[in-house]
Amino acid sequence: MIELRDVHKSFEENQVLRGVSLKVRKGESVVVIGGSGSGKSVLLKHIIGLLKPDRGTVIVDSTDLSQLDEEGLNELRKKFGMLFQSSALFDSMPVWENVGFGLKRHTRLSDSEIKKIAIQKLRMVGLVGVEDLMPSELSGGMRKRVGLARAIAMEPEILLYDEPTTGLDPIMADAVNELIIKMRETLHVTSVTITHDMKSAYKIADTIAMLYNGVIIASGSPGEIRNTPDPVVRQFIEGRAEGPIVLEGIIR
Amino acid sequence: MIIRFIEFIGVLMEKPAEGLGRFILLFYAVLKGIARPPFDVRNIVRQMLEIGVNSLPVVLITAVFTGMVLALQGYTGFKRFGAEGLVGSVVALSMTRELGPVLSALIVTGRAGAAMAAELGTMRVTEQIDALETLATNPVKYLIVPRFLSGLMMLPALTVVTDIIGILGGYFVTVTLLGTSSKSYLRATWNFLQVQDIYVGLTKACFFGAAFTLISCYKGFYTSGGAEGVGRATTGAVVFSSMTILISDYFLSAWLF
Ligand SMILES: Nc1ncnc2c1ncn2[C@@H]1O[C@H](COP(=O)(O)OP(=O)(O)OP(=O)(O)O)[C@@H](O)[C@H]1O
Ligand SMILES: [Mg+2]
Questions:
Q1: Nearest to B133 by CA among A184, A141, A47
Q2: What spacing in Å lies between the alpha carbon of A36 and ligand 1's midpoint?
Q3: Collapsing DSSP states into helix, strand and coil, what is residue B142?
Q4: Strand order in the sheet with A29-34
Q5: Which residues have C-beta within 8 Å of that of residue A44, sequence separation ≥ 6?
Q6: List of chain A residues whose C-beta atoms are within 8 Å of the C-beta of residue B133
Q7: B160 C-alpha to center of ligand 2: Å?
Q8: How far, in Å, are B69, B102, B178, B180 from residue B90 at the CA level?
Q9: Which of A144, A57, A141, A64 has the alpha carbon at shortest distance from A98?
Q10: B29 lies in some domain
């Protein structure tokens, strides 16, 4: 369904991705873990064509993204829903229009029908009575969940979640995990999730992949990752400051 | 030595040349967006109100005082050789050909142009433009085309208003304050004013409207570097648009005579 082949990406001198290869099968839930600044968000943006690789290919649904013109890419993007790390809500419109944006653009539904669907999606992410608020009136965790509601509003085949549980309280975080699982089980969604939250990773992943130094250094089922002998992965999943991963500038 | 020099010029021109290239590509994308219906009528109307109605008070005040000062200065000057009767013509000509389009363009740039750059710049740095793309929406068509079209339409409209109000301001000073006869002012206005003058003024207004929206949207659309970048984009939009308006005004005047 999704395949990245040897993807390289640099920003000026900064080599972020140095040959990432990753395969996501249809209906699979892949979780990408990795240190802060390791390029996880950059990786996710390649899958939906927001960033173009310097080298290598991104294939979605057996189409090479670089072969698509703008219209083709937009058609393909209708299969996607994406939650941004920063939520990226449109702050010129109320919450319900944010959630219903795709419906408004790509269906013939009336405003009142769209609002009804938006309210229902907001309920799914645990938000009630916020539909008429503006994004600036919401807390960070609420914004994240509105972003999540917007991502699932069109019932896409592929969902990309960039840190869906960051900034949520533990109970709400678990509810979001349940939602992600439900999306996969009931709608057979293919998903790529980025997270730092290992508990969430173990819960929602079929496959966990770790991004380190611009490449995927390990990939396997939650059980395999949990018992991996790889010291780098071990250090990360156990959350220790000492180990092979060097934290630049932090003195200990 | 010469090669060194050419290299040096090349390096110096790299950034502006790259910017110009991107600007032209953006302009092309905007034209492509216009050529391909459907139009987002609701969005266009909102932008027209934003540009037109919200700028109206400032434009009105500027226009009336400009007309007044033109009349006052014209009167003082022309009186020396007994040509007070020409004040109306001076006001009418300067307003329609020159000051109407230029002043309204500069005011609208300061208000609406700055707002466009700040809004698009904020949307860029907070990833809202990326979010539009993930929702299968072409951001140039969704954000820039309505702004461009409303600039193109609203600036001539504001110019007409500025012209009329400026001429009325001149009338007020010449007739009410300085006591020239109302008939001679109006005669001087009508006799000298030609369709050509209005045509020149409105052509300029269309050009300025297109220029300031494109430049402001360009600056906002390619913002980088957080809040500071948004500030830079906004300032840049106003400075570049104003410069473009003032410089192109000379050349448009020369070409359109
Ligand atoms: N648009 C961009 N322009 C320039 N550099 C960028 C851009 N986007 C990301 N980077 C750089 O790429 C690197 C990886 O960024 P990315 O946002 O992918 O990290 P991340 O793994 O998502 O980190 P976090 O867990 O903190 O979100 C960073 O060094 C960042 O500075
Ligand atoms: Mg990130």
A1: A47
A2: 8
A3: helix
A4: A80-83, A158-162, A190-194, A29-34, A207-212, A215-220
A5: A32, A82, A160, A162, A192, A194
A6: 48-50, 77
A7: 51
A8: 11, 16, 16, 15
A9: A144
A10: no
CA distance B215 to B217: 6
Chain A touched by B18 (CB under 8 Å): no
Domain extents for chain A? 2-238
Minimal Cα–Cα distance from A110 to chain B, Å? 15
Question: Which CA distances in Å does B49 have to A153, B151, B161?
Answer: 31, 10, 15
Q: Which helix (H) or strand (E) holds A178?
A: helix A170-187
Q: What is the pTM of this model?
A: 0.90
Record: fold of A2-238: Rossmann fold (3.40.50)
Binding site membership of A36 for ligand 1 (Cβ less than 6 Å):
yes
Tokens 């770790």 correspond to A210
**CA-CA distance, A153 to A128, in Å (whole number)?**
16
Query: Ligand 1 centroid vs A40 CA: distance in angstroms?
Result: 7
Closest residue to B131, CB basis, from A74, A88, A105: A88
Per-residue model confidence as pLDDT tens digits over B44-93? 999 999 888 888 999 999 999 999 999 999 888 888 887 777 888 888 88
Cβ A85 under 6 angstroms from ligand 1: yes
Strand-pair category, A190-194 with A158-162:
parallel
User: Which protein residue's CA is at the shortest distance from atom 31 of ligand 1?
Assistant: A37
Tell me how many domains chain B contains. Answer: 1
The tens digit of pLDDT for each residue in B117-157 reads: 999 999 999 999 999 999 999 999 999 999 999 999 999 99
Helices (H), A67-110: 70-77, 95-99, 101-106
A46 lines ligand 1 (CB under 6 A): no
Q: Which amino acid is at B18?
A: E
Q: Which of A144, A41, A105 is nearest to B135 (CA)?
A: A105
Per DSSP, helices labelled H in B111-181 are 114-125, 128-134, 139, 145-171
Query: Per the domain annotation, does B28 fall within a domain?
Result: no
Instruction: Give the residue numbers spanning the domain of B100.
Output: 45-256
Residue A42 Cβ inside 6 Å of ligand 1? The answer reads yes
pLDDT at residue number A250: 65
